[in-house]
């Protein structure tokens, strides 16, 4: 297993206050994961239009989106180890994108790796503090 470090936070952090910010990407790319686990979708007020979803997908490279899509497919097929490998690759490509960290959380959790799952979820919360899917009480803008 690859040991990944949280992203370097030495520079300024871009606020995630827009609808097409990190929450949008997380909702777009992690929704298949969340649904596969029986979890609810994003809260009703965060429901995105098809156009907003497409804009979020084009925010990152096609290679990154393909890796996350493959990871989501592996997870849905109950291939949690394969999904974990792909989510780790996504984190290496885009360490500031919470979807990779959230995917690692879900895969580790499904594999029974509770400590690693908690670490991945903590990092997802760090990179996306305003994502209501990750944080029960996200900070106000």
Write the layout of secondary structure elements.
Layout: H1 22-36, H2 50-57, H3 62-76, H4 80-93, H5 98-110, H6 114-127
Please tag this protein with its features.
single chain; 141 residues; mainly alpha; 6 helices; 56% helix; 0% strand; globular
Structure description:
With about 140 residues, the protein is mainly α. Helices cover about 55% and strands about 0% of the residues. The protein has helices at about 20-35, 50-55, 60-75, 80-95, 100-110, 115-125. Helix 1 runs parallel beside helix 3, helix 3 runs antiparallel to helix 4 and helix 4 packs antiparallel against helix 5 (about 100-110). Mean pLDDT is about 75; it is low at about 10-25 and about 30-45.
Low-confidence spans: 9-27, 32-46
The best one-word shape is globular
User: What percent strand?
Assistant: under 5%
Q: Which structural category do the helix and sheet elements fall into?
A: mainly alpha
Number of separate strands: 0
Short note summarizing the structure:
The chain has 6 helices and no strands. It starts with 21 loop residues before the first helix and ends in a 14-residue tail after the last helix.
């Amino acid at each position: 297993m690859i040991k990944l470090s949280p992203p370097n936070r030495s520079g300024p952090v871009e606020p995630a206050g827009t609808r097409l910010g990190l929450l949008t990407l997380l909702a777009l790319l992690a929704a298949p994961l969340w649904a596969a686990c029986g979890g609810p979708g994003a809260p009703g007020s965060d429901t995105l239009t098809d156009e907003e979803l497409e804009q979020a997908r084009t925010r990152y490279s096609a290679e990154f989106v393909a890796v996350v899509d493959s990871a989501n497919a592996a997870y849905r097929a109950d291939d949690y180890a394969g999904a974990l490998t792909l989510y780790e690759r996504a984190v290496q490509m885009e360490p500031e994108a919470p979807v990779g960290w959230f995917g690692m959380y879900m895969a580790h959790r499904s594999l029974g790796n509770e400590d690693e799952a908690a670490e991945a979820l903590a990092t997802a919360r760090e990179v996306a503090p305003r994502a209501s899917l990750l944080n029960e009480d996200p900070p106000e803008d």
